[in-house]
Amino acid sequence: MGTNSKSMLFFFQVAADHCVWYGECGPSKQVPDKKYNCNYTGPPKPLEAEGHELLTELCPGLDYGDRAICCDVAQLRTLKGSLQLPLQFLSRCPACYFNLMTLFCELTCSPHQSQFMNTTIDTKGTTIDKNVVAVQYYIGQTFTDAMYNACKDVQAPSSNVKALSLLCGKDASQCNATNWIQYLFDINNGQTPFAIDPKFSDVPLSGFNPMNNYTFNCTEGLDDGSGPCSCQDCAAACGLDGMCVVMWLSYMSFLLVFFGIVIGAWCFRIWPILDSNNPLSLNADNPDQVNASYCERLGERFENAMREVFSSWGSFCVRYPLLVILGCIILVGLSSAGLVYMRITTDPVELWSSPSSQARREKDYFDSHFGPFFRTAQLIITTPVNHPEIYKPYFPGPDVPFNTILTKAILHEMESENIEATLKAECDSEKTFLGCLWLRTTTTATILSVPQTTFQNSHTQLDRIAEDEFFVFADYHMVFFFLQCTASLNDTTQLHDPCLGTYGGPVFPWLAMGGYDGTNYNNATALVITFPLNNYKDDIVKKGKAMAWEKEFIRFMKNYSHPNLTVSFSAERSIEDEIDRESDSDISTIILSYAIMFIYISLALGHIESCRRVLVDSKISLGIAGILIVLSSVSSSLGIFSYFGVPLTLIIIEVIPFLVLAVGVDNIFIVVQTYQRDERLPDEELHQQIGRILGDVAPSMFLSSFSETVAFFLGALSNMPAVRTFSMFAGLAVVIDFLLQISCFVSLLGESRGHLCCVKLPEGQETKTDGCLFQFFKKVYAPFVLKEWVRPIVVAVFVGMLSFSIAVVNKVEVGLDQKLSMPDDSYVLDYFKNLSEYLHTGAPVYFVIEDGHNYSSLEGQNAVCGGVGCNNDSLVQQVYAASLLSNYTTIGFTPSSWLDDYFDWVKPRSTCCRVNNSTGLFCNASVVDPLCVPCRDMTAEGKMRPQGDDFMHFLPMFLSDNPNPKCGKGGHAAYASAVDLIDNNTHVGATYFMTYHTILKESPDFVDALKMARALARNISTTMDHNVFAYSVFYVFYEQYLTIIYDTALNLCLSLLAIFVVTTVLLGFELWSAVLVSCTIAMILVNMFGVMWLWDISLNAVSLVNLVMCCGISVEFCSHIVRAFTVSVKSTRVERAEEALAHMGSSVFSGITLTKFGGILILALSKSQIFQVFYFRMYLAIVLLGATHGLIFLPVLLSYLGPSANRAKVFAANKRFAGTEREPLLNY
User: Fold this and answer.
1) Which residues form a coiled coil (predicted)?
2) In 10 A of CB 468, how many CB atoms?
3) How does 24-63 read in b/e, with b if 16+ C-beta sit within 10 Å?
4) C-beta separation of 745 from 668 below 8 A
5) Phi, psi torsion values for 645, nearest 5 degrees
6) In whole angstroms, what separates CA 1059 from the centre of its chain?
7) Is 1030 helix (H, G, I), strand (E, B) or coil?
8) Are the C-beta atoms of 476 and 389 separated by less than 8 Å?
């Protein structure tokens, strides 16, 4: 402060337990209607009697003893007035409001002010009325945090947001304990008359002791009897989630019962069902007979039949390898030849909406009667410049602030950027300009922007002023401040500017501006320019021109730069272009992922004994052959369906190779590793040995493959096109893969026995080998997992995981954040961000009255219109009523009604409807011709609404009339496409009434909007007794989420049912084994939902496809283990489970688990967010959950609850291997 200042500011620290102010002095410079407090450093003063009640009201629970305090009644009244806004929003939570009042009461009235306040004094004036112009307020951090925690969840129902969003100067998500108090004390918030600088600390600071009064938690009641805050306003008051409580109690009950039974069985060994050491009860008295039931004998015969069939087939494939391989190549070639007819669908409508769905049928109806919804390109313009203007109206009144984006300099710069005249695109050797593409017939037609419409895209118009030699009466500010243009053809200011756009209709401020509050358009921080283009659905040439212009638009905007403007933009083709670019960028990641899996497979199949045998033992040729078989099965599936004209999707191309590789690799590892561990029997030839091996393992391969195939084909029953096509292609690919494995691969296995890369080994040189992984599983892993003390822990852990997943399954979000589908560096992400931040209006919604309604009758008109004499429950009235509850209904505005405007247009007192008296042709209101007379006479009948033939006679004229300054009711600009005239303009067909949704940001918002609009349309249909539906462009994409939960449950339940039935049959009618397999797969699926909740993966069509795939892959993890258990002839369940885990577990682990794990980790490197979320995360979860359940939980479950050995199978096995040195089991 200069030495010549008339006032001097100084810091004055007062002694403890003294006041720092008392009473009010001069007016505040920042807030003129408020006053500074007077500096006072004396002791507290008793409060006047008239202030006792006010003090109790404002500061409940604060006991100041004899009421000697540091404020007077005037200060209390000022405090009450300043806190009206927080009172309105925060008093619904008593604890929050009490803590907030404590903050302000201690500041204003505490007799201990000097302990935690330091003042800055203005010495201007007398010594007894010095103004306190600033204060430092030392507040305890503990108090600060507690106050914020009590208030952070309080809702503002009228705004559908949290109260702190209105009281913190920013969104509640960005508000915290300290910046909230800083905003409350900010001198710029319009309520604080002087600067208050809060200092936060729990320890003494600069000689002051921070105010750290007692606070109430939002879950606590107050001393005055007020209860705790509601669950809505206090998340902590909601208590535990009901489902979580139920599952926790269920889990603890299970543990109590389970461990009780386990301990009891361990102590007494009297529980047969849980006694894992209970031996088999075979008839030892007569070795030629066995006491087997009918089902056991039937199962043994079925098992034996499959063994013989596959053994014979395997032997044939080894004996005639050339015939088999050549036949497979021919069939694969013929099938894959269908790829020449391959058609890839990228149209989101075709991907996510069934042709028979309600939204699709309504879209087709709308398109056929009114034309397809227009294409849009849009700019959202902000400015980094922060130079707002203060407009001083000519008439006395408060100054009006205008944000920088609405200053004349910025508007001039925007008008200079004549994008629509600059952009041209070349399509089919023709220059395509915007002018030949944009819409001209709706209320959202032409270029919607402030410069284009409000100022006619004219610098001169923007610079116009109304003035005399003394005053400026009006300038461009008046347009924004009064905004008369939305209601009249010429504004009512002295400028009398034309308010219609170049297309003949108005542009509403809520469409052209953003970032304002309420209806204070002068506070706008963004301007919106929209280019609506005609959508040519079936005209490829015109659609190509539109897309060419959009491509040029995107190129231009990417290169656009302006120091004073920040522009985010999007075009109709932007999302599809970015997805294509994203797919191209991820090709290298996908190729690398598959390359790693292929290399691993090629090397892991071998078991190298010496350098001399490296080319044979490495089994590289078998690995490559296995990979080629997987690729052949995929290409054959794609080709066969392409023959029938079934289109492909990107999901099929990306997911099915992963799925078939998982299934195929597992089976290949089982065949090869079984062969490596097998020892040829005496007098057994190679083709007999491989045939015998195939007879042992092929039933297990057939079980898993056929289960997956049936499950996938049942998934094709889904109404969702993406899920249906994936299931069809996947099911056929798995079938072909299995057939190639048991034919072509078996032949190659026989050939690779002694011939590879020109190397021939002696016939008997290859011997039985056990790999390190097999030895580890057999001697270390399997015995450990099935130890007596480990098994209960495994059960407890996995049941706990299941309980947790069930508790959170209903918390998995439904929908797809469209930002996830964009690359990290996409320009569309900025557009999405600004769309949510600035725009106040959502998508247009049309209430369509289907053909057949009689508009010519009085009853038909009354059921629709909204004017005098119309029904209170008419269509327009019901939509209007819904707009009054926009926070609930998402209907943002009153609908535009062609019928009501037509009635106003045709009135005889109007200058709109005129006809030439001699020719009978229509005369526009701007035409000056004495022969033009009103359409209807000024009679009682003429003043009534037109009915019958009269109604239809003038309606085409109304729909062809362009608005002008003499008649703003012409219907061509607004309604030309809203009315479908049929039968040579003699009847009205389908019509629509348009309004707008409120701004919709997240998937749940769009789904709720669809629900509400349909509910409103159903109610209108009921009252009109005629079908009315709501249509908006996004409905066709979000309708899937109305039934996604049902579709998910149906698809997964059908898949589980298919797996149960197939497993029951192919395991030889082992019903209980099928139950255990199905239960384990169900646990994996439920746990997948738990992972989705933990990892923020929403439920949508993409994740549903992955869940269906998870169901199929889980079969691979489970079925082989269970079948090995059922055919084992060990004496106890534990021994049978250990044997199954040792022999099959190593193949499952080295096959599907390690193969997939390496490839999946590479997906984490993808730049695509959707790849990271829906592929890397979900694939990793599928493999980890499948492996842990199949290799840990399932063997333990079998050791407890596994089915008893099939006596017929055991007897047959002992008989079959009698006299050999082999162990009496299927030695995988």
Assistant:
1) none
2) 7
3) bbeebeebeebbbbbbbbeebbebeeebeebbeebbbebe
4) yes
5) 80, 15
6) 31
7) strand
8) no
Q: pLDDT tens for residues 916-970?
A: 888 888 888 888 888 888 888 888 887 888 988 889 988 999 998 888 777 878 8
Token couple for 5: 């200042």
Residue 1028's contacts (CB-CB under 8 Å, 6 or more residues apart) are: 847, 848, 849, 850, 875, 1017, 1020, 1021
Give, in order, the Cα–Cα distances in Å from 666 to each of 856, 988, 1147.
72, 65, 7
Q: Identify which of 1159, 1146, 1220, 1227 has the alpha carbon closest to the alpha carbon of residue 1187.
A: 1146
Q: What is the pLDDT of residue 836?
A: 81
Residue 415 CB: number of other CB atoms within 10 A? Answer: 19
Contact status, residue 1079 vs residue 1198, Cβ threshold 8 Å = no
Name residues of the chain where pLDDT drops below 70.
1-16, 61-66, 123-129, 158-160, 239-242, 265-294, 392-398, 412-507, 537, 582-587, 602-619, 662, 752-771, 1158-1159, 1163, 1166-1168, 1206, 1209-1228
Within 194-293, residue ranges assigned H as helices are 242-268
Return the ∠ at Cα 1157 (arms to 1111 and 746), rounded to 5°: 75
How far is it, in rounded angstroms, from Cα 157 to Cα 172? 14
State residue 676 phi and psi, 5-degree precision: -65, -35
d(CA 1183, CA 1156) in angstroms, rounded, equals 7
Residues making up the chain, counted from first to last: 1228
Global pTM value: 0.72
Packing angle between helix 540-559 and helix 574-604, nearest 10 degrees? Answer: 90
In angstroms, the CA 374 to CA 380 distance is: 19
Residues 6+ away with beta carbon under 8 Å from 753: 686, 766
The pair of three-digit structure tokens given for residue 431, joined into one six-digit string: 């220059």
Q: Give the closest residue to 549 by CA, choosing from 647, 431, 661, 650.
A: 431
Say if CB 1082 and CB 1056 are below 8 A apart. yes
DSSP 200: E
Amino acid in position 492: T
State the DSSP string of 409-432: HHHHHHHH--HHHH-EEEETTEEE
Phi-psi sector, 560: left (phi>0), alpha (psi -120 to 50), beta: beta
Judge whether 522 and 389 are in contact, CB under 8 Å: no
Q: What is the pLDDT of residue 899?
A: 92
Helix, strand or coil for residue 1076?
Answer: helix
C-alpha separations of 265 from 276, 335, 640, 872, 1199 in Å: 9, 58, 57, 75, 14
**End-to-end Cα, the chain, rounded Å:** 93
**How many Cβ atoms sit within 10 Å of the Cβ of residue 403?**
22
353, 359 in Cβ contact below 8 A? yes
Q: Tell me 35's DSSP state.
A: E
CA-closest candidate to residue 597, choices 38, 1182, 1152: 1152
List Cβ neighbours of 222 (8 Å cut-off, separation of 6 or more). Answer: 60, 61, 94, 95, 98, 216
Say which DSSP state 490 is in.
Answer: B
Measured CA distances, 1085 to 291, 682, 802, 1092, 1095 (Å): 39, 47, 10, 11, 15
Residue 382 parent element (H or E): strand 375-382
DSSP state of 237: G
Residue pair 973/963 in contact (Cβ under 8 Å)? The answer is: yes
CA distance linking residue 520 with residue 524, whole number of Å: 8
Cβ atoms within 10 Å, residue 655? 22
Contact 99/146 with Cβ under 8 angstroms? yes
Q: Which residues contact 88 (CB under 8 A, 6 or more apart)?
A: none
Could you give the CA distance from residue 759 to residue 612 in angstroms, rounded to a whole number? 10
On the CB side of 676, CA atoms within 13 Å amount to 26
Q: Where are the beta strands (DSSP E) in 549-643?
A: 566-570
